[in-house]
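ok posting inputs for the iron/sulfur cluster job
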Amino acid sequence: MSKRSRTDLLSLPPEDLALALETHFRKRNQPIYRTGQVRRWLYEDLSGSIDEMTDLPLKERDALKDSFTLTRLEKARVELSQDGTVKHLWSLSDGEFIESVLIPSKKRLTLCISSQAGCAMGCTFCATGWGGFQRQLTTAEIVSQYTASRRWAEDHLEATISNIVYMGMGEPLSNRKALHDSLSILNQGYAVGARRITVSTVGVVPGILELAERPEQFRLALSLHAPLSELRLGLIPLEKRHPLPEVLSALKHFNQSGGKRITFEYTMIRGVNDALELIAPLVELARSVDAYVNLIPFNPIPYQNWEPSKNHRIKKFAKILNEQGVPAAIRETRGRDIDAACGQLKAHTLAQLEKPRKQKD
Ligand code: SF4
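and the output
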């Protein structure tokens, strides 16, 4: 079999993987339990190579390598923050870079993963947006951020990942086949509970509607950042294609599709989107879809001279939202000393090495 037609073991949802392995081993007159052996190596032992699957006879490992591959990410850089946040910069087989971030807290270890190399959305407050789009990630490249980070966390932090957020580089709902397959693998293969996995979007309406159709209770975060269309348009260009009223109607559908929680992410930028008059429309939007609001102080990025809102303004937003019956919290900025916000490590690395690939006017 040619190398080009080999299937990555991390690219198939568990049911499809079982079928593919059963077919493979049946053709080789091997017992059916070989399928279970491979699945255990992948999902329980977090194996990064077919050669590690030592309870398969050598001949069977070689035959498996003739038909399948197994993506393993190369670590290009790892940065540890004083607050415990850990950022990995991974180098892909074609030389692209992606990031993932481990965020420990008292009760959780959250992994933030990327869904694309770069991003085409061009949000003006985001380092990834300034860098432009390079390519879609494959399912295996998404899943292997989890396996590689989990291995690292178990070795270095003696902790396991409890939550996953698709909030790294890229818009996950613009890479839907890989997103949906990776959700199935993480949930059914690696047993990460659906309610512990959050998909974040800037408002790709067809993707929200598609996610609503899944029976699992994956969570959704909308990068809102402004409660009014005109203001939001200056932060998120996608607002032009999918304006807030259309996004809201998709969110209502998502909300009504059974126990699925929605969060609004609101990055607070001084003098841009932190006027007190914006609280009333924000309350109205959040109430309409039972959303929880995360207020996030803006994390400065290399190509933009905005500043985070003052602390007292952020607290005021949180207080009024809570008084109005909208649950809201201030999300502390983590890993600022290691550029842990989306796209920043790559942006700063590229800024040191070269000019950014895409300069905006
Ligand atoms: S905020 Fe998300 S969607 Fe917007 S440019 Fe950054 S990575 Fe892309």
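notes: The chain has two domains: 7-69, 74-353. The longest helix spans residues 139-156.
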